[in-house]
Design goal:
Layout (H helix, E strand, L loop, with lengths): L6 E5 L2 E3 L6 E2 L10 H8 L6 E5 L11 H15 L5 H4 L6 H12 L13 H4 L12 H26 L1
Antiparallel strand pairs: 1-2, 1-4, 2-3
């Protein structure tokens, strides 16, 4: 009788999918291995891989605080600001990417120094009233949410072509 396939492989906070077909955060989508298979695979990179019995593995691996905040900001942009997919689809000249870059660059500013770097002013694509920097972390969250919006816009544009 062969050994049961009840072992999962964790790598860098993700589960291995079956047949080394990428990674997932969902236990239900994880590959199942024998104990020996899981141990052998985890031994390849033991500093960030491990074999875990499915009975003690979490059902889903949660997002970090940062990922949660980015997704929450994207939802806020849609719900509170009205920046729906239809609205975003009107920004086809890289404006959302430029806005994201402006917020990200702004985090490199040294406002306490004698010569603040104001690089963002050159690339901010919209009226000044929409420029709302706060602090480095919050600005990076805004930047990431804008990047997500731009990626989603590109995906929708590509889907319309097919």
């Amino acid at each position: 009788m062969s050994e049961e396939r009840v072992w999962l492989i964790l790598k860098g906070g993700y589960f291995y999918r079956p047949n080394r077909a990428g990674y997932t955060t969902r236990k239900a989508e994880a590959g199942r291995y024998t104990h020996l298979e899981a141990l052998a695979e985890a031994a390849v990179e033991p500093w960030h891989m491990s074999a875990v019995h499915e009975s003690v593995a979490p059902n889903d691996i949660g997002h970090s605080r940062a990922a949660h905040d980015v997704l929450a900001e994207r939802e806020r942009q849609i719900a509170d600001e009205g920046w729906t997919h239809e609205h975003d689809d009107g920004h086809c000249d890289g404006e959302m990417a430029l806005a994201a870059a402006a917020y990200a660059i702004n985090t490199a500013n040294d406002f306490d120094g004698p010569h603040p770097r104001l690089l963002f002013a050159e690339i901010w694509p919209w009226a000044d009233c929409w420029w709302k920097p706060t602090n480095p972390r919050r600005d990076l969250v805004k930047a990431a949410a804008l990047i997500l919006a731009e990626i989603e816009r590109l995906d929708r544009a590509e889907a319309r072509k097919t």
